Amino acid sequence: MNSVQKADAIRALKSQRPISMLTAYDYPTGRLLDEAGVDVILVGDSLGMVMLGFPDTTHVTLDMMVHHTAAVARGVKNSLIIGDMPIHSYDTPEQAVASARQLVEAGADVVKLEGGINQVDKVRAIVAAGIPVIGHHGMLPQRVLEEGGYKKKGKTAKESDAILEGALALQEAGCFAIVLESVVPELAKKITHTLEIPTIGIGCKGKDQEQTCDGEVAVITDVVGSYPWFVPPFATQRADVAGEISRAVRGYINSI
């Protein structure tokens, strides 16, 4: 399948079954996730923190994203690959198209950008260039410095209405799916039921881990426990890779 067909296949999963998405930043991780059968692999700008040691995603450049996208793509045969568009790589529609093309040339099937109504012209331009787009709405990590931290979204009626309006605008502009981040469960559920395209949640689950979106995305280091210095409160750690690395290294040191 080509990239458009892959994106259409993910879109068609809405209301059929949950969509699985995980991040990857290198060849072995991308290959392992692909072989395990994950639907979508996101080469996220979260690599700035969990791979490169920056305090947030605002330090990530397009060159960094191209480099890591190419590495992941070398290991993936089946999963849809998303190339995340870093901050200031899509300030204008023209720049957005040029940046998206670089990520696709590196191996991405589709691209992702953050924001709602203000990004509609960029989404339309990228889609018109033949590149599928997945939106990202709710809490926007690239605006963490402007907002003074990571905050749950949709707590007020005004904010809730604005997020829903933005999600509908992204759908109308041509997005085949939307990531919802740190949106209150009631709003996430409302958006999911309102949109015709899938929603992929992160930090949007309800009580008792009730799923409120059509799918779920998680950062791979949170899932496997390879970044112990910070784990988001909504993440579920399913392994202790960091502990195993420490154990193996101590064993190596003691064996010399």
UniProtKB/TrEMBL annotation:
Single biological process term from Gene Ontology: pantothenate biosynthetic process
Q: Binding of Mg(2+): at which residues?
A: 45, 84, 114
Q: Might you give the EC number(s) for this enzyme?
A: 2.1.2.11
Listed Pfam families:
Pantoate_transf
**Any idea which GO molecular function terms this record carries?**
3-methyl-2-oxobutanoate hydroxymethyltransferase activity; magnesium ion binding
- Active site at 181 (proton acceptor)
Q: Quick check: keyword Transferase in the entry? A: yes
**Which first-to-last residue range defines the signal peptide?**
none
Binding residues for 3-methyl-2-oxobutanoate: 45-46, 84, 112
| The UniProt record lists the keyword Transferase | yes
> Which PANTHER family does this one have?
3-METHYL-2-OXOBUTANOATE HYDROXYMETHYLTRANSFERASE
Q: Which family does it belong to?
A: Belongs to the PanB family.
The entry's protein name is 3-methyl-2-oxobutanoate hydroxymethyltransferase
Q: Which organism is it from?
A: Oceaniferula spumae
